[in-house]
Amino acid sequence: MFLLKMGSFFTTLIGAFKGMKHRSRFIDKLTFQKYNAGFKPNRTPYDWLNRDEKEVDKYVDDEYCGGMFTVAFWKAFFHELQTINRNYELIPKNLPIFIASGSKCAVGNYGKDISKLYEKYQKIQIKDLQFKLYDQARHEILLELCKEEVRSDFVNWFVRHLPK
User: Fold this and answer.
1) For the chain: N or C, fewer Cβ within 10 A?
2) Spatial distance between the Cα atoms of 90 and 98, rounded to a whole number of angstroms
3) For residue 160, is pLDDT > 90?
4) Rounded mean pLDDT of the chain?
């Protein structure tokens, strides 16, 4: 929660001086740029996304990927994450939830934060809860080397939850 509050503080401050449409290198460094640190040597700034170099190259080559978000985006993002983190008790207990991530996803703190989320959902007694970490997979699990397993797991989960 502290980091989210700091993010909100910095986006408010930067927005006041530079405007909410400003694209801040400082905020970008605080968020996305740290993710690549765990993957050395780096071939691209986006190695954290995927083990499949072809998929990373597609991302790098896509003009709509890899850009910097505005201060307004980050302000809203940090605000909404704080709201979510304060309101777990509002999640319906009968809502089916499937939490899935790569064990090497830097965004999920290499499985640690995802595991904590699962434990939090267990603690608030979500009745239909499934959790899976895909070994060695990074952030884009639907495009990862294990994508067939991931897709199969998701399809099977959805089929089990379709109305009878």
Assistant:
1) C
2) 17
3) yes
4) 94
